[in-house]
Every structure is written in structure tokens, then in C-alpha cells.
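Risk register update: the risk of archive-format incompatibility is retired. Evidence:
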Amino acid sequence: MDEGGAYLEKLSGMLDAARVKTVTLTNPLEVVPTLKRAEEMGNPLQLLLITLPSHDSKSYDAAAEVRRLGGAYARPPVVGLSRVTELDAIKSEKAGFDTVLSLPVRSRTLYETLLNLLGRGSVFGSLSGDSAQGLSILLADDDRATMKLTRYLLTKAGHTVEEAKNGTEAVRRFTGSPGAFDLILMDVEMPEMDGYEATQAIRERGFEEVPIIALTAHAQQEDHDRCLKAGMNDFITKPITQVNLLAAVAKWSGKR
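Archived output:
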């Protein structure tokens, strides 16, 4: 919730990059009704982010009202966002905020804070480099620079990586030892056999459970639809970034 909406776009962008669904509000009075409605619909909110402007106390009041509700309604962590010069530390503590971050907030700081509040089983565990649930990943790409960057980001996050330089090699490596891999990252444009054909070959041989994530330079909807039609589960648009890569891997970890 961001009264005035000045930080909504930036915060939403950080969370969208982590594949986190968000509900954005600009009126503090909408926080409790929205929280109740989500709970009643069986899709409870997992976290509340509330900016704290200096000109009124409505945002503090919203957090306090959430805490007074008790039970399931008061379960989500409540995080305040405020410029240092505008923060009322005593008021925020009384209102029941779990923590307050200083604006402007960096994505890394936001992810690490949410990791501490939500636990390492959340998507933020992977984004912060948590290796507790490291995966064995088959990476298929013919571009050496992309391969090097992707491997670095994945191994830094605690995953192990085996490489394939084209679709033919990817199919051979996976089908030769399917139990060795938790997930496949598949470039769609490769020599000999492209990623679409490789994915279809894997699926046609009965391997329906392994998640296959496309790596594509094309951002059009029809390109994404083609990935899904070929049997891929998801896609990452190039150029690869740490946030997008690790969020996608975290999303599909344990899906097999």
C-alpha cells in the first residue's frame, strides 16, 4: 500500500521480477477490507508493505487495525517503508510493524528482509542465494557468454549445472540420465536441434514431469505461446538477470 502511489511502480517491479503476485492500493482505508476479502476467498495475503508518509497517521492506523483483528488476519508480516527523515519510530512500533525499511529501498535489501520474515522456503530464499534447496540443472544454450553468466548465477545460488551446447545434446544428456536433473533451462534458438524441438522430443519420450524453462530473446506474446505449446513450462526473456533467473528456478523447484 502506497498512499499517493509514488513508489508503487518501483516496488511492484521488484516483486513482479521475483514472480510475486501483488495487490496495489493507494488508500490506507482499503488495507483491512482487502485483507479480509482475500482471506474469505481462500487466497490470503502473505505480506503487507505499507509506506509511511509524514503528513498523516492513516498508514500507521491501518497496520494497527490489522494487528487488532488477530487470528489469520494478523498472520502476514507488516513491513513499513519510510524516508528516514519522516519515520516516527515509536508510532511504527506501537502500530505493530515487524520492521521498517528506509526509502529508497534496493531490491537486494527488500528480498533479504522478506526472506527473514517469510522464511527460506519462500522465493526470496533463492533470490538471496540460499543453497538449502540446491537443484541439479541441465543448461542448454549455444551462446558461450550466456552460458557462462547463467552458470555463474546458478552455482552462486547453490545449484549444480551441467551444460549442453545444442538441442540434440540436451535430449541425449537428459534422456540418458533423467533422474539426475531437477530442471532444464532451454535456449530456444540452437544449431542442429532448437529448443522447441528438443522439448518436444523430451516430452514425446514420456518425460512430462521435469520442468523446462525457455530462454528466449523474444518478448512477444506469440513467442511465449509457442514455448508453452512446445511443452515448456515457463520462459525467461533475455538478457538474463539474476532476479529473473533465480525467481523462475525457485518457482519450479520441487515441481517434479
